[in-house]
Amino acid sequence: MTQCSNELCLVGDLEEKEDKESFFEKKFWYFIIPSAILLGIAILIEFLTQAIILSQFFAVTSILLSCYGILKEAIEDILGKRITANILMLVAGIASFFIFHGQEGATAILLYAIAEHLEELTTDKSRHAIKELLELAPDEALLKTEDGYKFVPTREVKVGDIVGIKPGMKVPIDGKIVKGESYFDESAITGESVPVFKSITDEVFAASMNSDSFIDIEVIRESSNTVVAKIAESIKLAQQNKSNSERFIEKFARYYTPIILISSLLVMILPPLLFRLDFNTWFYRGLVLLVVSCPCALTLSTPLANIAALTKMAKEGILVKGNKFIEKAKSIELIAFDKTGTLTEGNLKVFDIFEYSLDKQEIMKLAASLEVLSEHPIGKAIVHQAKQMDLSLYNVDSFNIIKGKGIKGEIHGQVYHVGSKKYFEDLEFNLPEGIFGDIEQTGTIPILLGTNNIVLGVITIRDVLRVSAPLLVDGLKKRGFKSAMISGDNQLVCNTIGACLDIDASYGELLPDQKLEEIKELKQKHKGVAMVGDGINDAPALALSDLGIAIGASATDITLETADVIVMSDDLKKIITFFDISKKTNRTIRQNIWTSIIIKVAFAVLTVIGLMTLWLAVGIGDMGVSLLVLINGMTIFRYRMKYKDIPIDDLESDAKIIICNSCHTKNIIPQHHGRDMIEKEGKLVCWRKLLNSDELEPCEEELPLFCPKCENQLEVV
User: Please, are residues 177 and 220 in contact by the beta-carbon 8 Å criterion?
Assistant: First the structure.
């Protein structure tokens, strides 16, 4: 047998699974809409005229238009010696015509066909996720040869080969740097929002982006064994390992349908045959038993509630890829979150300024003057803040980038440095004592400004927390869920965000395979684990978790395809909505099933002892129960989120800086609980103070608006 690489086999397996759609599946709604119209005509004829035969004719025609998929699967189930919901639906449809009430059977089959089709629509794309993931890494690599560099297929590159990576080029294969140094955007692999500086001997991953310098890497893994390929393989295995437990209704149908059919025949035949009782009386009772036991209400109990739930969630901006994930929600005990882009917005912002030899305004002005010549995300955050403060920048001479550490340049003949703590330690600056411990506790990134071995100031940078994040975690806690954060970001940053949100546990500095291991450990400790994420690096964890939830506003295509549930906006409260509706749906399904069973059994007993008529069997035991199931399922649409919708404008302002009109001092707006504080009644207050106390315990932090220099009133502009 010819062997192939894991990567090629994965793609090949996916392509083989792409079944050709039938004409009915391609033109589904062209069949279903006429089927619904004909069913409506059949019902009207039944109620308005005495033309029963004509009514049944339209009902039969309706079924013929809508039953193709059910019939096809039922035949496959019969050949496979399985009794499933498809067979149950066909039996229900056929049995309904015995007493000229085919409209009920036609309705059941029509609704069931729509439910199955909607589930297929939401799951078809997921099989392409692995293929798309593998395509993230380039198909060609710039292989170094004796005659120079040349492009070759990535799969032909071997371990030990030297591959060149141009600026702006994606890394095609895993390797370690043997020449050059550069920044790499590894957000697709690690989830880290800040590009990472890599130099000689450092490892780079396939699908990461080289920022600004040409480098050579020595290949350490073949294309079939890269981190990206492993992620793809993890997704594949995790999806295969997900158990699709058979629905209760299908298990019950294995016994219910044959027992009822046999029982009806026995009621019709045995009493007249063995005891010479009146044949017409017992045939009538057998017919009533068949009708009253018709499983229409039972088979509608699950799909009707699920259709209502899927429709309601869609209106709420939540996409659920199948009914089984609504069922799965009831077993979840712990919800794990990615940090960057999920609980936070993924946007770096100046958090605070520590001043030493200069005031905050001058520190920002000098740092931004240097950083404006840099393309680093941290530099962009500093420049953006300087623009918000309306600061005019200095001209810089002799600008130079010290990669992975910082930058330097001359301003008015004086050399200034901006960079990391390590950069300033290498330059032997006199670092301020005590400050860095406090900065680490806040989970921020310190950026130093200095000259002549003296630190002039420290600017701290941090990601911005989503407004809905604390509402989400608090809401989940009130519903009995536990929470955890698993992220590729710095552990101290994760600890800070976790403490701010009151998350039960925080795990940082995790690569995708480590996230996967963490999910495995959490699954061993808890009955069910859900994972919420948005990045490619979250895909394996989403797939392995019992329930994967993607935040669609910021999620990558692969994450969207891998997830079981997609929140189409960045409103994290929608996750609460999903669990609330799922809980109500599962409760409704249980109510429908047991109501149907109890009524059917009770009416069956009454039928056998002769206390049931055909009219009651049809009107109450069959149609009545079906209508009750329908109405109960529709109550799902009445769900309303208990948390009030909080307009983002109420928790944000257009204010950019704080300014003193007397001494013209400008300063940044301080943050608290991960976001800018808000001006309220002449003071700065934490944004959480503006939340309703019923939704979340408010924060009472507030700061007076007085200038520290001249003690005049400050203005927020």
Answer: no
Homologous superfamily (CATH) of 311-344+466-581 is HAD superfamily/HAD-like (3.40.50.1000)
Distance CA 567, CA 563 (A): 10
Residue with tokens 């370690």: 176
- Show the tokens assigned to 372: 């404006």
- CB 262 within 8 Å of CB 290: no
Please state which of the four CATH numbers 1.20.1440.60, 3.40.1190.20, 3.40.50.1100, 2.70.150.10 is assigned to the domain occupying 138-225.
2.70.150.10
Side-chain-side CA neighbours of 429 within 13 Å: the count stands at 25
pLDDT tens-digit map of 538-585 = 888 888 899 999 886 556 666 777 888 888 777 888 899 999 999 999
341 backbone dihedrals φ, ψ, rounded to 5°:
85, -10
pLDDT digits (tens, 9 = 90+) for 114-166: 766 765 664 454 445 445 555 667 889 999 998 899 999 998 999 999 999 99
Nearest to 640, CA basis, from 314, 318, 319, 316: 316
Number of H helices, E strands in the chain: 26, 30
What is the distance of C-alpha 496 from the center of its chain? 23
Q: Is the pTM of this model over 0.70?
A: no
Torsion of CA 212, 215, 220, 226, to 10 degrees: 30
- CA pair distance 558, 132, nearest whole angstrom: 7
Nearest to 99 by CA among 615, 612, 626, 605: 615
DSSP 620: I
CB atoms within 10 A of CB 658: 22
Dihedral over Cα of 259, 261, 262, 263: its sign: positive
In angstroms, rounded to a whole number, what is the distance separating the alpha carbons of residues 240 and 412? Answer: 65
**Three-state secondary structure string covering 317-355:** CEEECCHHHHHHHHHCCEEEECHHHHHEEEEEEEEEEEE
Is pLDDT of 376 > 90? Answer: no
Residues 25-62 have pLDDT tens digits of 778 889 999 999 998 898 888 778 878 888 889 989 99
Asked if residue 100 has pLDDT above 90, the reply is no
pLDDT at 367: 94
Question: How far apart are the C-alpha atoms of 670 and 693, rounded to whole Å?
Answer: 23
What value, to the nearest 5°, has the Cα angle with vertex 237 and ends 234 and 242? 120
Instruction: Indicate the CATH number for domain 347-465.
Output: 3.40.1110.10
- Minimal CA–CA distance to 105: which of 277, 378, 330, 290? 290
Whether 541 and 516 have beta carbons less than 8 Å apart is answered as: yes
pLDDT value of position 1:
38
Is 489 tagged catalytic?
no
Mean pLDDT for the stretch of residues 482-493: 85
Question: Can you give the three-state secondary structure of 539-561, one letter per residue?
Answer: HHHHHHCCEEEEECCCCCHHHHH
Backbone angles phi, psi at 657, to 5 degrees: -145, 170
**For the chain, domain boundaries:** 1-135, 138-225, 242-308+584-639, 311-344+466-581, 347-465, 648-716
CA distance 637 to 658: 47
User: CA quadruple 394, 397, 401, 407: dihedral positive or negative?
Assistant: negative
- What gap in Å lies between CA 215 and CA 529, rounded to an integer? 42
CA distance 29 to 520: 42
Of 161, 174, 338, 622, catalytic = 338
Which residues, at least 6 apart from 346, have a Cβ–Cβ distance to it below 8 Å?
A: 193, 340, 463, 554
Contact (Cβ atoms closer than 8 angstroms) between residue 205 and residue 173: no
Mean pLDDT, to the nearest integer, of 646-654?
A: 56
Question: Rounded to an integer, what distance in angstroms lies between the CA atom of residue 491 and that of residue 493?
Answer: 5
